[in-house]
TrEMBL record, chain A:
The chain crosses the membrane at residues 70-90, 110-131, 151-174, 203-222, 258-281. It comes from Marivita lacus. It is found in: Cell membrane. Gene3D superfamilies: MetI-like (1.10.3720.10). This is ABC transporter permease. The lineage of its organism: Bacteria, Pseudomonadati, Pseudomonadota, Alphaproteobacteria, Rhodobacterales. Belongs to the binding-protein-dependent transport system permease family.
Amino acid sequence: MHRDWGHAALLLLPAMVLLFAFTHMPAIQTVIDSFWSTPRGRRPSVFVGDANYRRMLADPIFLKAMSNNAVYAALTIPASIALALAMAIFVQGRIAGRAFLRMSYFTPTVLPLIAVANIWVFFFLPGFGLFEQIREALGLSPQNWIGQPATALYAVTVVSVWSQAGFFMIFYLAALQNIPDSLREAAALEGTSRWTFFRRVTWPLLMPTTLFLSVNATINAFRTVDHIFVMTQGGPNNASMLLLYYIYEIGFRFWDTAYAATLTVVMVAILAIVGLGQFFLMDRRIHYK
Amino acid sequence: MSVMVTDTSRVDRALFVTGAWVLALIWVLPLAWAIWSAIHPPAFVTRFDPLAPLTVENFVGAWNAAPFGRYLLNTVLLVSLVLGAQLLLCIHAAFAFARLEFPGKSILFALVLLQLMVTPDILLVRNYATVASLGLLDTILAIGLPYFASAFAIFLLRQTFKTIPKELDDAARVEGVTLLGLIWRVYVPLAKPTILAFALVSVSHHWNNFVWPLIVTSSVETRPLTVGLSIFATTDSGIEWSTITAATLITSAPLLVGFLLFQRQFVQSFMRAGIK
Protein backbone atom coordinates (compact mmCIF):
# COMPACT_ATOMS: atom_id res chain seq x y z
CA MET A 1 0.00 0.00 0.00
CA HIS A 2 2.67 2.48 1.01
CA ARG A 3 4.60 1.77 -2.15
CA ASP A 4 1.54 3.18 -3.93
CA TRP A 5 2.02 6.54 -2.17
CA GLY A 6 5.45 7.06 -3.63
CA HIS A 7 4.33 6.03 -7.08
CA ALA A 8 1.27 8.24 -6.90
CA ALA A 9 3.39 11.22 -5.83
CA LEU A 10 5.78 10.75 -8.74
CA LEU A 11 2.99 10.25 -11.28
CA LEU A 12 1.02 13.25 -10.07
CA LEU A 13 3.81 15.71 -9.35
CA PRO A 14 4.42 17.22 -12.83
CA ALA A 15 0.73 17.71 -13.60
CA MET A 16 -0.09 19.05 -10.14
CA VAL A 17 2.81 21.52 -10.14
CA LEU A 18 1.63 23.04 -13.43
CA LEU A 19 -1.99 22.96 -12.35
CA PHE A 20 -1.20 24.86 -9.15
CA ALA A 21 1.14 27.26 -10.97
CA PHE A 22 -1.40 28.30 -13.60
CA THR A 23 -4.77 27.86 -11.91
CA HIS A 24 -4.77 27.76 -8.11
CA MET A 25 -1.86 30.06 -7.29
CA PRO A 26 -2.90 32.77 -9.77
CA ALA A 27 -6.49 32.56 -8.51
CA ILE A 28 -5.34 33.13 -4.92
CA GLN A 29 -2.83 35.78 -5.97
CA THR A 30 -5.55 37.58 -7.93
CA VAL A 31 -7.67 37.91 -4.78
CA ILE A 32 -4.65 39.27 -2.87
CA ASP A 33 -3.76 41.68 -5.69
CA SER A 34 -7.25 43.12 -5.63
CA PHE A 35 -6.55 44.63 -2.18
CA TRP A 36 -3.34 46.33 -3.31
CA SER A 37 -2.59 49.20 -5.66
CA THR A 38 -0.93 48.84 -9.06
CA PRO A 39 2.84 49.47 -8.84
CA ARG A 40 3.76 52.37 -11.13
CA GLY A 41 7.39 53.18 -11.98
CA ARG A 42 9.21 53.68 -8.71
CA ARG A 43 6.00 53.72 -6.68
CA PRO A 44 5.62 50.27 -5.17
CA SER A 45 2.31 48.54 -4.57
CA VAL A 46 0.59 49.51 -1.30
CA PHE A 47 -2.29 47.96 0.63
CA VAL A 48 -5.47 49.87 -0.23
CA GLY A 49 -8.17 47.78 1.46
CA ASP A 50 -11.41 47.75 -0.51
CA ALA A 51 -10.54 50.83 -2.60
CA ASN A 52 -10.39 48.82 -5.85
CA TYR A 53 -13.81 47.34 -5.13
CA ARG A 54 -15.31 50.75 -4.34
CA ARG A 55 -13.83 52.06 -7.57
CA MET A 56 -15.32 49.10 -9.44
CA LEU A 57 -18.83 49.63 -8.10
CA ALA A 58 -18.65 53.29 -9.14
CA ASP A 59 -17.16 52.49 -12.56
CA PRO A 60 -19.84 53.04 -15.23
CA ILE A 61 -17.94 50.89 -17.76
CA PHE A 62 -17.83 47.94 -15.36
CA LEU A 63 -21.54 48.28 -14.66
CA LYS A 64 -22.20 48.53 -18.39
CA ALA A 65 -20.07 45.42 -19.03
CA MET A 66 -22.00 43.50 -16.36
CA SER A 67 -25.41 44.47 -17.71
CA ASN A 68 -24.25 43.75 -21.27
CA ASN A 69 -22.95 40.37 -20.19
CA ALA A 70 -26.27 39.61 -18.49
CA VAL A 71 -28.20 40.49 -21.66
CA TYR A 72 -25.72 38.58 -23.80
CA ALA A 73 -26.04 35.48 -21.59
CA ALA A 74 -29.83 35.78 -21.42
CA LEU A 75 -29.97 35.78 -25.22
CA THR A 76 -27.22 33.35 -26.23
CA ILE A 77 -28.08 30.59 -23.75
CA PRO A 78 -31.76 29.97 -24.65
CA ALA A 79 -31.21 30.73 -28.35
CA SER A 80 -28.28 28.32 -28.73
CA ILE A 81 -30.04 25.59 -26.80
CA ALA A 82 -33.37 25.93 -28.60
CA LEU A 83 -31.69 25.94 -32.01
CA ALA A 84 -29.46 23.01 -31.04
CA LEU A 85 -32.51 21.00 -30.03
CA ALA A 86 -34.31 21.89 -33.27
CA MET A 87 -31.25 20.84 -35.28
CA ALA A 88 -30.96 17.55 -33.43
CA ILE A 89 -34.64 16.74 -33.97
CA PHE A 90 -34.36 17.69 -37.66
CA VAL A 91 -31.49 15.33 -38.40
CA GLN A 92 -32.38 12.57 -35.96
CA GLY A 93 -34.95 10.82 -38.13
CA ARG A 94 -35.14 10.08 -41.83
CA ILE A 95 -35.00 13.29 -43.84
CA ALA A 96 -33.81 14.15 -47.36
CA GLY A 97 -30.21 15.40 -47.35
CA ARG A 98 -29.60 14.39 -43.75
CA ALA A 99 -25.81 14.24 -44.05
CA PHE A 100 -25.70 17.68 -45.66
CA LEU A 101 -27.98 19.16 -43.01
CA ARG A 102 -25.91 17.75 -40.17
CA MET A 103 -22.70 18.98 -41.76
CA SER A 104 -24.14 22.46 -42.28
CA TYR A 105 -25.18 22.73 -38.65
CA PHE A 106 -21.92 21.44 -37.24
CA THR A 107 -19.30 23.07 -39.50
CA PRO A 108 -19.22 26.51 -37.77
CA THR A 109 -18.03 24.72 -34.64
CA VAL A 110 -14.68 23.79 -36.16
CA LEU A 111 -13.93 27.30 -37.43
CA PRO A 112 -11.86 29.62 -35.24
CA LEU A 113 -14.19 32.19 -33.70
CA ILE A 114 -11.79 34.87 -34.87
CA ALA A 115 -12.31 33.71 -38.48
CA VAL A 116 -16.06 33.45 -38.00
CA ALA A 117 -16.12 37.05 -36.75
CA ASN A 118 -14.20 38.20 -39.83
CA ILE A 119 -16.79 36.66 -42.11
CA TRP A 120 -19.70 38.12 -40.16
CA VAL A 121 -18.22 41.62 -40.07
CA PHE A 122 -18.72 41.65 -43.79
CA PHE A 123 -22.36 40.58 -43.46
CA PHE A 124 -23.00 43.49 -41.16
CA LEU A 125 -21.21 46.18 -43.18
CA PRO A 126 -23.47 49.19 -43.75
CA GLY A 127 -24.78 49.51 -47.27
CA PHE A 128 -22.59 46.68 -48.51
CA GLY A 129 -23.10 43.48 -46.53
CA LEU A 130 -25.63 40.81 -47.32
CA PHE A 131 -28.17 41.86 -44.69
CA GLU A 132 -28.00 45.32 -46.14
CA GLN A 133 -28.67 44.13 -49.66
CA ILE A 134 -31.78 42.35 -48.43
CA ARG A 135 -32.89 45.48 -46.58
CA GLU A 136 -32.22 47.60 -49.63
CA ALA A 137 -34.31 45.28 -51.75
CA LEU A 138 -37.12 45.78 -49.22
CA GLY A 139 -36.65 49.55 -49.41
CA LEU A 140 -35.24 49.95 -45.87
CA SER A 141 -32.54 52.47 -44.98
CA PRO A 142 -28.96 51.23 -44.44
CA GLN A 143 -27.95 50.32 -40.87
CA ASN A 144 -24.48 50.17 -39.35
CA TRP A 145 -25.19 47.04 -37.32
CA ILE A 146 -21.87 46.75 -35.48
CA GLY A 147 -21.12 50.47 -35.50
CA GLN A 148 -24.14 51.80 -33.64
CA PRO A 149 -24.77 51.37 -29.90
CA ALA A 150 -28.35 50.18 -30.33
CA THR A 151 -27.45 47.02 -32.28
CA ALA A 152 -23.76 46.19 -31.63
CA LEU A 153 -24.44 43.81 -28.74
CA TYR A 154 -27.09 41.94 -30.73
CA ALA A 155 -24.77 41.59 -33.72
CA VAL A 156 -22.18 39.98 -31.46
CA THR A 157 -24.88 37.76 -29.94
CA VAL A 158 -25.92 36.44 -33.35
CA VAL A 159 -22.35 35.43 -34.15
CA SER A 160 -21.98 33.60 -30.86
CA VAL A 161 -25.21 31.64 -31.36
CA TRP A 162 -24.25 30.77 -34.93
CA SER A 163 -20.88 29.42 -33.85
CA GLN A 164 -21.98 27.26 -30.92
CA ALA A 165 -25.47 25.89 -31.68
CA GLY A 166 -24.12 23.09 -33.89
CA PHE A 167 -21.76 21.98 -31.16
CA PHE A 168 -24.63 21.69 -28.69
CA MET A 169 -26.66 19.78 -31.29
CA ILE A 170 -24.45 16.70 -31.06
CA PHE A 171 -25.18 16.34 -27.34
CA TYR A 172 -28.90 16.37 -28.03
CA LEU A 173 -28.37 13.88 -30.86
CA ALA A 174 -26.60 11.54 -28.46
CA ALA A 175 -29.38 11.92 -25.91
CA LEU A 176 -32.13 11.39 -28.49
CA GLN A 177 -30.53 8.12 -29.53
CA ASN A 178 -30.93 6.91 -25.97
CA ILE A 179 -34.69 7.38 -25.97
CA PRO A 180 -36.10 3.89 -26.59
CA ASP A 181 -38.08 3.41 -29.80
CA SER A 182 -40.67 1.46 -27.81
CA LEU A 183 -41.81 4.73 -26.22
CA ARG A 184 -42.40 6.27 -29.62
CA GLU A 185 -44.23 3.17 -30.83
CA ALA A 186 -46.42 3.09 -27.74
CA ALA A 187 -47.25 6.77 -28.20
CA ALA A 188 -48.11 6.17 -31.86
CA LEU A 189 -50.48 3.37 -30.87
CA GLU A 190 -52.19 5.66 -28.39
CA GLY A 191 -52.56 8.27 -31.13
CA THR A 192 -50.47 10.82 -29.23
CA SER A 193 -49.62 13.86 -31.32
CA ARG A 194 -46.03 14.66 -32.11
CA TRP A 195 -46.11 17.81 -29.99
CA THR A 196 -47.62 16.05 -26.96
CA PHE A 197 -45.01 13.30 -27.25
CA PHE A 198 -42.27 15.92 -27.33
CA ARG A 199 -43.66 17.80 -24.34
CA ARG A 200 -44.45 14.78 -22.19
CA VAL A 201 -41.68 12.35 -23.11
CA THR A 202 -38.79 13.78 -25.12
CA TRP A 203 -38.31 17.07 -23.30
CA PRO A 204 -38.29 15.60 -19.76
CA LEU A 205 -35.90 12.84 -20.85
CA LEU A 206 -33.57 15.44 -22.37
CA MET A 207 -33.52 17.48 -19.16
CA PRO A 208 -30.06 16.31 -18.00
CA THR A 209 -28.60 17.26 -21.40
CA THR A 210 -30.34 20.63 -21.34
CA LEU A 211 -28.92 21.26 -17.90
CA PHE A 212 -25.41 20.28 -18.97
CA LEU A 213 -25.65 22.52 -22.03
CA SER A 214 -27.03 25.43 -20.00
CA VAL A 215 -23.98 25.31 -17.77
CA ASN A 216 -21.70 25.16 -20.82
CA ALA A 217 -23.52 28.02 -22.53
CA THR A 218 -23.33 30.11 -19.37
CA ILE A 219 -19.59 29.57 -19.07
CA ASN A 220 -19.16 30.42 -22.76
CA ALA A 221 -21.16 33.61 -22.35
CA PHE A 222 -18.56 34.86 -19.90
CA ARG A 223 -15.41 33.17 -21.14
CA THR A 224 -15.56 33.55 -24.94
CA VAL A 225 -14.87 37.04 -26.24
CA ASP A 226 -12.67 36.39 -29.30
CA HIS A 227 -15.23 37.83 -31.72
CA ILE A 228 -15.38 41.10 -29.75
CA PHE A 229 -11.75 41.76 -30.69
CA VAL A 230 -12.53 41.64 -34.40
CA MET A 231 -16.07 42.99 -34.54
CA THR A 232 -16.50 45.83 -32.07
CA GLN A 233 -13.66 45.99 -29.53
CA GLY A 234 -16.31 46.57 -26.91
CA GLY A 235 -17.67 49.63 -28.68
CA PRO A 236 -19.18 51.79 -29.85
CA ASN A 237 -19.25 53.69 -26.58
CA ASN A 238 -19.00 50.39 -24.63
CA ALA A 239 -22.26 49.14 -26.14
CA SER A 240 -20.82 45.64 -26.61
CA MET A 241 -18.34 45.63 -23.70
CA LEU A 242 -18.23 42.25 -21.97
CA LEU A 243 -16.52 41.49 -18.66
CA LEU A 244 -13.58 39.45 -19.97
CA TYR A 245 -12.90 41.96 -22.73
CA TYR A 246 -12.88 44.74 -20.13
CA ILE A 247 -10.40 42.74 -18.03
CA TYR A 248 -8.18 42.50 -21.10
CA GLU A 249 -8.44 46.25 -21.73
CA ILE A 250 -7.67 47.23 -18.15
CA GLY A 251 -4.89 44.66 -17.80
CA PHE A 252 -3.15 44.93 -21.15
CA ARG A 253 -4.06 48.33 -22.62
CA PHE A 254 -3.87 50.37 -19.43
CA TRP A 255 -1.63 47.93 -17.50
CA ASP A 256 -3.67 48.58 -14.36
CA THR A 257 -2.99 45.12 -12.90
CA ALA A 258 -4.61 45.72 -9.50
CA TYR A 259 -7.90 46.85 -10.99
CA ALA A 260 -7.77 44.03 -13.55
CA ALA A 261 -7.30 41.61 -10.63
CA THR A 262 -10.38 43.07 -8.93
CA LEU A 263 -12.44 42.53 -12.08
CA THR A 264 -11.04 39.00 -12.39
CA VAL A 265 -12.27 38.23 -8.87
CA VAL A 266 -15.80 39.02 -10.06
CA MET A 267 -15.29 36.72 -13.05
CA VAL A 268 -14.01 33.87 -10.89
CA ALA A 269 -16.93 34.38 -8.49
CA ILE A 270 -19.45 34.14 -11.34
CA LEU A 271 -17.87 30.94 -12.67
CA ALA A 272 -17.67 29.47 -9.17
CA ILE A 273 -21.39 30.14 -8.64
CA VAL A 274 -22.18 28.44 -11.96
CA GLY A 275 -19.98 25.51 -10.97
CA LEU A 276 -21.63 25.13 -7.57
CA GLY A 277 -25.06 25.47 -9.15
CA GLN A 278 -24.23 22.65 -11.55
CA PHE A 279 -22.94 20.50 -8.71
CA PHE A 280 -26.15 20.83 -6.70
CA LEU A 281 -28.49 20.52 -9.67
CA MET A 282 -26.69 17.42 -10.91
CA ASP A 283 -26.82 16.04 -7.41
CA ARG A 284 -30.59 16.41 -7.28
CA ARG A 285 -30.88 14.73 -10.62
CA ILE A 286 -29.08 11.68 -9.32
CA HIS A 287 -31.53 11.44 -6.40
CA TYR A 288 -34.36 11.52 -8.89
CA LYS A 289 -33.17 8.30 -10.50
CA MET B 1 -61.30 11.05 -40.32
CA SER B 2 -58.23 9.13 -41.37
CA VAL B 3 -57.92 11.34 -44.48
CA MET B 4 -57.81 14.43 -42.28
CA VAL B 5 -55.06 12.95 -40.10
CA THR B 6 -52.82 12.19 -43.07
CA ASP B 7 -53.46 15.68 -44.40
CA THR B 8 -52.37 17.45 -41.23
CA SER B 9 -49.41 15.13 -40.83
CA ARG B 10 -48.39 15.85 -44.41
CA VAL B 11 -48.48 19.61 -43.75
CA ASP B 12 -46.62 18.90 -40.53
CA ARG B 13 -43.97 17.01 -42.41
CA ALA B 14 -43.58 19.72 -45.05
CA LEU B 15 -43.11 22.38 -42.37
CA PHE B 16 -40.58 20.14 -40.62
CA VAL B 17 -38.48 19.59 -43.75
CA THR B 18 -38.68 23.27 -44.74
CA GLY B 19 -37.58 24.33 -41.28
CA ALA B 20 -34.62 21.95 -41.39
CA TRP B 21 -33.47 23.26 -44.78
CA VAL B 22 -33.98 26.95 -44.03
CA LEU B 23 -31.93 26.61 -40.87
CA ALA B 24 -29.22 24.68 -42.71
CA LEU B 25 -29.03 27.33 -45.43
CA ILE B 26 -28.70 30.12 -42.86
CA TRP B 27 -25.96 28.09 -41.17
CA VAL B 28 -24.07 27.37 -44.36
CA LEU B 29 -24.50 30.79 -45.97
CA PRO B 30 -21.66 32.70 -44.25
CA LEU B 31 -19.09 30.03 -45.09
CA ALA B 32 -20.44 29.60 -48.60
CA TRP B 33 -20.13 33.34 -49.14
CA ALA B 34 -16.59 33.35 -47.74
CA ILE B 35 -15.60 30.66 -50.22
CA TRP B 36 -17.38 32.47 -53.05
CA SER B 37 -15.60 35.77 -52.44
CA ALA B 38 -12.23 34.11 -51.93
CA ILE B 39 -12.23 32.32 -55.28
CA HIS B 40 -13.57 35.22 -57.39
CA PRO B 41 -12.08 38.64 -58.28
CA PRO B 42 -12.93 41.47 -55.83
CA ALA B 43 -15.54 42.88 -58.22
CA PHE B 44 -17.73 39.84 -57.55
CA VAL B 45 -17.75 40.03 -53.74
CA THR B 46 -21.50 40.66 -53.69
CA ARG B 47 -22.36 39.95 -57.31
CA PHE B 48 -23.40 36.35 -57.52
CA ASP B 49 -22.92 35.76 -61.21
CA PRO B 50 -22.56 32.06 -61.93
CA LEU B 51 -20.27 32.92 -64.86
CA ALA B 52 -17.87 34.97 -62.72
CA PRO B 53 -14.26 34.03 -63.48
CA LEU B 54 -12.42 31.91 -60.91
CA THR B 55 -9.12 33.06 -59.46
CA VAL B 56 -6.47 32.10 -56.92
CA GLU B 57 -5.19 35.70 -56.80
CA ASN B 58 -6.82 36.37 -53.43
CA PHE B 59 -5.02 33.47 -51.80
CA VAL B 60 -1.73 34.45 -53.41
CA GLY B 61 -2.28 38.05 -52.31
CA ALA B 62 -3.05 37.09 -48.72
CA TRP B 63 -0.17 34.62 -48.56
CA ASN B 64 2.27 37.30 -49.74
CA ALA B 65 0.82 40.16 -47.69
CA ALA B 66 1.46 38.48 -44.34
CA PRO B 67 3.70 35.59 -43.18
CA PHE B 68 0.91 33.02 -43.08
CA GLY B 69 3.35 30.20 -43.77
CA ARG B 70 5.20 31.02 -40.59
CA TYR B 71 1.94 31.44 -38.63
CA LEU B 72 0.80 28.05 -39.86
CA LEU B 73 4.07 26.47 -38.74
CA ASN B 74 3.71 28.15 -35.32
CA THR B 75 0.18 26.84 -34.92
CA VAL B 76 1.20 23.31 -35.89
CA LEU B 77 4.09 23.44 -33.43
CA LEU B 78 1.80 24.82 -30.74
CA VAL B 79 -0.96 22.24 -31.04
CA SER B 80 1.56 19.36 -31.21
CA LEU B 81 3.45 20.64 -28.19
CA VAL B 82 0.27 21.13 -26.16
CA LEU B 83 -1.18 17.75 -27.08
CA GLY B 84 2.09 15.88 -26.44
CA ALA B 85 2.59 17.51 -23.06
CA GLN B 86 -1.04 17.05 -22.06
CA LEU B 87 -0.97 13.35 -22.84
CA LEU B 88 2.36 12.79 -21.11
CA LEU B 89 1.32 14.58 -17.92
CA CYS B 90 -2.32 13.66 -17.77
CA ILE B 91 -2.07 9.94 -18.57
CA HIS B 92 0.19 9.49 -15.55
CA ALA B 93 -1.93 11.67 -13.28
CA ALA B 94 -5.13 9.99 -14.43
CA PHE B 95 -3.68 6.55 -13.71
CA ALA B 96 -2.78 7.62 -10.17
CA PHE B 97 -6.32 8.88 -9.58
CA ALA B 98 -7.91 5.80 -11.13
CA ARG B 99 -5.83 2.99 -9.68
CA LEU B 100 -3.61 4.00 -6.76
CA GLU B 101 -4.62 4.61 -3.15
CA PHE B 102 -3.00 7.51 -1.34
CA PRO B 103 -3.98 10.02 1.35
CA GLY B 104 -5.72 13.21 0.21
CA LYS B 105 -6.78 11.64 -3.07
CA SER B 106 -10.30 13.03 -3.17
CA ILE B 107 -9.19 16.54 -2.14
CA LEU B 108 -6.53 16.58 -4.84
CA PHE B 109 -9.02 15.36 -7.39
CA ALA B 110 -11.50 18.07 -6.38
CA LEU B 111 -8.71 20.62 -6.88
CA VAL B 112 -8.14 19.24 -10.36
CA LEU B 113 -11.85 19.52 -11.20
CA LEU B 114 -11.81 23.16 -10.11
CA GLN B 115 -9.87 23.91 -13.28
CA LEU B 116 -12.88 22.87 -15.38
CA MET B 117 -14.57 26.07 -14.20
CA VAL B 118 -11.73 28.46 -13.48
CA THR B 119 -9.58 27.96 -16.57
CA PRO B 120 -6.13 29.55 -17.00
CA ASP B 121 -7.41 31.93 -19.67
CA ILE B 122 -9.57 33.75 -17.11
CA LEU B 123 -6.49 34.51 -14.99
CA LEU B 124 -4.79 36.43 -17.80
CA VAL B 125 -3.02 39.10 -15.78
CA ARG B 126 -1.49 36.81 -13.18
CA ASN B 127 -0.46 34.14 -15.67
CA TYR B 128 1.16 36.78 -17.83
CA ALA B 129 3.24 37.82 -14.80
CA THR B 130 4.22 34.19 -14.18
CA VAL B 131 5.28 33.61 -17.78
CA ALA B 132 7.19 36.91 -17.74
CA SER B 133 9.05 35.98 -14.56
CA LEU B 134 10.07 32.68 -16.16
CA GLY B 135 11.52 34.69 -19.04
CA LEU B 136 9.23 32.93 -21.50
CA LEU B 137 7.34 35.87 -22.99
CA ASP B 138 6.94 35.66 -26.76
CA THR B 139 7.68 31.94 -27.03
CA ILE B 140 5.50 29.13 -28.27
CA LEU B 141 6.15 27.34 -25.00
CA ALA B 142 4.52 30.24 -23.13
CA ILE B 143 1.32 29.92 -25.20
CA GLY B 144 1.02 26.25 -24.33
CA LEU B 145 2.39 26.01 -20.80
CA PRO B 146 -0.78 26.98 -18.85
CA TYR B 147 -2.74 24.27 -20.68
CA PHE B 148 -0.33 21.36 -20.21
CA ALA B 149 -1.99 20.13 -17.03
CA SER B 150 -5.50 19.69 -18.36
CA ALA B 151 -8.19 18.89 -15.81
CA PHE B 152 -10.37 17.79 -18.67
CA ALA B 153 -7.82 15.22 -19.88
CA ILE B 154 -7.21 13.92 -16.36
CA PHE B 155 -10.94 13.58 -15.73
CA LEU B 156 -11.67 11.90 -19.05
CA LEU B 157 -8.77 9.44 -18.83
CA ARG B 158 -9.49 8.60 -15.20
CA GLN B 159 -13.06 7.65 -16.14
CA THR B 160 -11.76 5.41 -18.92
CA PHE B 161 -9.00 3.81 -16.85
CA LYS B 162 -11.55 2.96 -14.15
CA THR B 163 -13.47 0.80 -16.61
CA ILE B 164 -10.43 -1.37 -17.37
CA PRO B 165 -10.66 -4.68 -15.44
CA LYS B 166 -8.27 -4.81 -12.50
CA GLU B 167 -7.39 -8.44 -13.27
CA LEU B 168 -5.24 -7.10 -16.10
CA ASP B 169 -3.12 -5.20 -13.54
CA ASP B 170 -2.56 -8.30 -11.46
CA ALA B 171 -1.74 -10.42 -14.48
CA ALA B 172 0.75 -7.84 -15.73
CA ARG B 173 2.35 -7.46 -12.31
CA VAL B 174 2.73 -11.21 -11.95
CA GLU B 175 4.57 -11.12 -15.25
CA GLY B 176 6.91 -8.57 -13.68
CA VAL B 177 5.81 -5.57 -15.71
CA THR B 178 6.78 -2.25 -14.09
CA LEU B 179 4.21 0.39 -13.25
CA LEU B 180 5.19 2.54 -16.25
CA GLY B 181 5.09 -0.52 -18.46
CA LEU B 182 1.62 -1.29 -17.17
CA ILE B 183 0.43 2.24 -17.96
CA TRP B 184 1.91 2.46 -21.43
CA ARG B 185 1.50 -1.11 -22.61
CA VAL B 186 -1.84 -2.04 -21.06
CA TYR B 187 -3.82 1.08 -20.10
CA VAL B 188 -2.90 3.44 -22.93
CA PRO B 189 -3.70 0.99 -25.77
CA LEU B 190 -7.04 0.16 -24.15
CA ALA B 191 -7.88 3.86 -23.76
CA LYS B 192 -7.16 4.67 -27.41
CA PRO B 193 -10.68 5.84 -28.36
CA THR B 194 -10.72 8.25 -25.42
CA ILE B 195 -7.23 9.48 -26.25
CA LEU B 196 -8.22 10.07 -29.85
CA ALA B 197 -11.36 11.90 -28.75
CA PHE B 198 -9.38 14.11 -26.42
CA ALA B 199 -6.74 14.72 -29.09
CA LEU B 200 -9.30 16.04 -31.58
CA VAL B 201 -10.91 18.29 -28.98
CA SER B 202 -7.53 19.57 -27.80
CA VAL B 203 -6.15 20.23 -31.28
CA SER B 204 -9.25 22.09 -32.44
CA HIS B 205 -9.41 24.08 -29.21
CA HIS B 206 -5.79 25.22 -29.38
CA TRP B 207 -5.87 25.76 -33.12
CA ASN B 208 -8.72 28.22 -32.53
CA ASN B 209 -7.54 29.74 -29.24
CA PHE B 210 -6.97 33.48 -29.44
CA VAL B 211 -6.86 35.73 -26.39
CA TRP B 212 -4.00 34.16 -24.45
CA PRO B 213 -1.75 33.78 -27.54
CA LEU B 214 -2.52 37.41 -28.44
CA ILE B 215 -1.28 38.54 -25.05
CA VAL B 216 1.93 36.52 -24.78
CA THR B 217 3.19 36.80 -28.35
CA SER B 218 4.69 39.86 -30.02
CA SER B 219 6.59 38.61 -33.05
CA VAL B 220 6.06 36.77 -36.31
CA GLU B 221 8.20 33.85 -35.08
CA THR B 222 5.72 32.94 -32.34
CA ARG B 223 2.26 34.15 -33.41
CA PRO B 224 -0.27 31.44 -34.22
CA LEU B 225 -2.66 31.73 -37.17
CA THR B 226 -5.55 33.22 -35.20
CA VAL B 227 -3.43 36.11 -33.91
CA GLY B 228 -1.80 36.61 -37.30
CA LEU B 229 -5.20 36.73 -38.97
CA SER B 230 -6.58 39.29 -36.52
CA ILE B 231 -3.60 41.56 -37.10
CA PHE B 232 -3.89 41.15 -40.86
CA ALA B 233 -7.61 41.84 -40.94
CA THR B 234 -7.63 44.87 -38.66
CA THR B 235 -4.82 46.87 -40.23
CA ASP B 236 -6.46 49.73 -42.10
CA SER B 237 -4.46 49.45 -45.28
CA GLY B 238 -7.35 49.13 -47.66
CA ILE B 239 -7.06 45.39 -48.14
CA GLU B 240 -9.76 43.99 -50.39
CA TRP B 241 -12.50 41.95 -48.73
CA SER B 242 -11.78 39.03 -50.99
CA THR B 243 -8.17 38.98 -49.72
CA ILE B 244 -9.36 38.99 -46.12
CA THR B 245 -11.75 36.11 -46.71
CA ALA B 246 -8.98 34.21 -48.48
CA ALA B 247 -6.79 34.73 -45.41
CA THR B 248 -9.67 33.65 -43.20
CA LEU B 249 -10.02 30.44 -45.18
CA ILE B 250 -6.26 29.79 -45.05
CA THR B 251 -6.51 30.02 -41.25
CA SER B 252 -9.44 27.63 -40.98
CA ALA B 253 -8.73 25.32 -43.92
CA PRO B 254 -6.54 22.64 -42.33
CA LEU B 255 -9.03 22.02 -39.55
CA LEU B 256 -12.01 22.34 -41.87
CA VAL B 257 -10.60 19.84 -44.38
CA GLY B 258 -9.71 17.49 -41.55
CA PHE B 259 -13.25 17.79 -40.26
CA LEU B 260 -14.88 17.14 -43.64
CA LEU B 261 -12.68 14.07 -44.19
CA PHE B 262 -13.16 12.62 -40.71
CA GLN B 263 -16.63 13.95 -39.95
CA ARG B 264 -17.83 10.86 -38.16
CA GLN B 265 -14.78 10.65 -35.89
CA PHE B 266 -15.00 14.35 -35.12
CA VAL B 267 -18.63 14.23 -34.10
CA GLN B 268 -18.19 11.03 -32.11
CA SER B 269 -15.11 12.42 -30.39
CA PHE B 270 -16.80 15.64 -29.39
CA MET B 271 -19.70 13.61 -28.09
CA ARG B 272 -17.50 11.21 -26.18
CA ALA B 273 -15.54 14.09 -24.69
CA GLY B 274 -18.65 15.97 -23.67
CA ILE B 275 -20.61 13.21 -22.03
CA LYS B 276 -19.49 12.85 -18.46
